[in-house]
Amino acid sequence: MPDRNHQRPVPGRIRPPIGETYIIKQLLDIGAQTLLIPMVDSKEVAENLVKAVSYPPRGVRGVGAALARASRFNRIPDYLQTANDEICLLLQIESRAGLAALDEIASIDGVDGIFIGPADLAADMGHLGKPGAPEVQKEVEKALKRIQSHGKAAGILTADLSLARRYVDLGATFVAIGNDVTLFANATTRLIEEFNRTVSSQGSASSGSVY
């Protein structure tokens, strides 16, 4: 992925479907270093996720990675001793329960950043399909400030570029403005529209059919 300033590649973030310990272990063992875990709504869940990404005694991550891709198949010296410090754990807050526990979650050592999921948050607040609703935006803005007050990175997703700018101005340090599915859908829509315009403009010059 490119960054917005220099178009340089930056490490990818992997978002598993659920924050189960065994799934997290598999992702870390293949070399993932930044994980974005969805639907975190309590301090207990967040603490368990910190344990899942950490080797003992801090956590419960299995040491099989010493023979896995993450350690270049045991070619990285002291991998087990340094791995904990190289993992970036980002947690997604997407519900009213998550907002209620936000300060407790953000205060946990080992949580590197918190990402607000506005679509699911809006749905949970009774504004299904309306993440831009004033009530939702009020809570989002308060949440971004609360996250930063704990010294953690604050992030959010939005396809609205004016909102993206607003979030950056509020101190968000990572703002997702698209994803692979929407980028692909938008690109194919533009391609089809361009093709149809081309065919229409040439229609009078040809009586053939295009398949």
TrEMBL record:
What is the similarity comment for this entry? Belongs to the HpcH/HpaI aldolase family.
Write down what this protein is called. Answer: 2-keto-3-deoxy-L-rhamnonate aldolase
Q: Which residues cross the membrane?
A: none
Question: One Pfam match, by short name?
Answer: HpcH_HpaI
Gene Ontology CC terms: cytoplasm
Q: Is Nucleotide-binding among the key words of this record?
A: no
Tagged with keyword Transport:
no
Alphabetically ordered keywords of this record: Lyase, Metal-binding
Q: Which GO terms describe its molecular function?
A: aldehyde-lyase activity; metal ion binding
